[in-house]
Amino acid sequence: MEGLHPDIQSIILGEDDIRKVIERLGREVSRDYVGKSPLIVAVLRGAFVFTADLMRAITVPCSVDFMAVSSYGDGVKSSGVVRIVKDLDTKIEGRHVLIAEDILDSGLTLSYLIDLLQARRPASVHVATFAVKDIEGKVPAIDPRYVGVHVPNEFIVGYGLDYAERYRNLPYIGILKPEVYK
Ligand code: PRP
């Protein structure tokens, strides 16, 4: 394995750890969706890495589509009101939809997205999130059906997660050194 990126303080989830998590999630999803041909909806941008791995660990027939959302102003973390930047190309009426997210923080983005997709009358909507951020005293707005890992409330990047659009390509999840963002 290559050396640690100089901006990373420590690794909290290495490539082998990630692989094991993906294998487990793939088994869970495959077991639950037998005969259902789910549509995996990746929420850009962060989820594209997780989605690519998850899909390859799913053994039932499935398809993929993409959505991109953006906050109104900079209040998305608190308000949860998001704007659709890119909508699905797929009609989801009657389909089993599985939203793939990289990280669940407040859960407000997903809560909004679930309501939006439910209005299109899919057969079901569930969420697979690679990570859930554990924040003391806070409970996320939604309860995802599939959870990869719980991560501490640190500034983490890699495996799709960015800081200012950087570090998404790191094959592990690590804590960013504070001097990088301060
Ligand atoms: C991140 C992440 C979720 C959202 C989680 O996206 O991918 O969509 O924040 O936060 P919440 O649970 O508090 O709503 P971000 O806005 O950083 O966009 P990105 O995926 O393009 O990095």
Question: How would you describe the overall organization of this protein?
Answer:
The strands form two sheets. The chain has a six-stranded mixed sheet, with helices on both faces. A three-stranded antiparallel sheet has the order 1-9-8. It has helices spanning 15-32, 48-57, 76-79, 108-118, 178-181; strands at 8-13, 39-44, 63-71, 82-86, 96-104, 124-134, 146-152, 156-157, 173-176. The chain has five helices and nine strands. The chain has one domain (15-155): Rossmann fold, CATH 3.40.50.2020. The protein binds 1-O-pyrophosphono-5-O-phosphono-alpha-D-ribofuranose. Residues 43, 45-46, 77, 101-109, 162 line the site of 1-O-pyrophosphono-5-O-phosphono-alpha-D-ribofuranose.
According to DSSP, the number of beta strands is 9
Low-confidence stretches: none
Query: What percent of residues adopt helix (DSSP H or I)?
Result: 25-40%
* Domains, number: 1
Taking all Cα atoms into account, the compactness measure Rg is 16 Å
CATH architecture heading: 3-Layer(aba) Sandwich
Quick check: average pLDDT?
93
String of helices and strands: EHEHEHEEHEEEEH
Major beta sheet summary:
6 strands, mixed
Query: What is the global morphology?
Result: globular
Which structural category do the helix and sheet elements fall into? alpha/beta
CATH class term: Alpha Beta
**Spatial sequence of strands, sheet with the most strands:** 4-3-2-5-6-7
Any idea of the CATH topology?
A: Rossmann fold
> Number of helix segments?
5
List the ligand species.
Answer: 1-O-pyrophosphono-5-O-phosphono-alpha-D-ribofuranose
Percent strand equals: 25-35%
Quote the distance from N terminus to C terminus: 29 Å
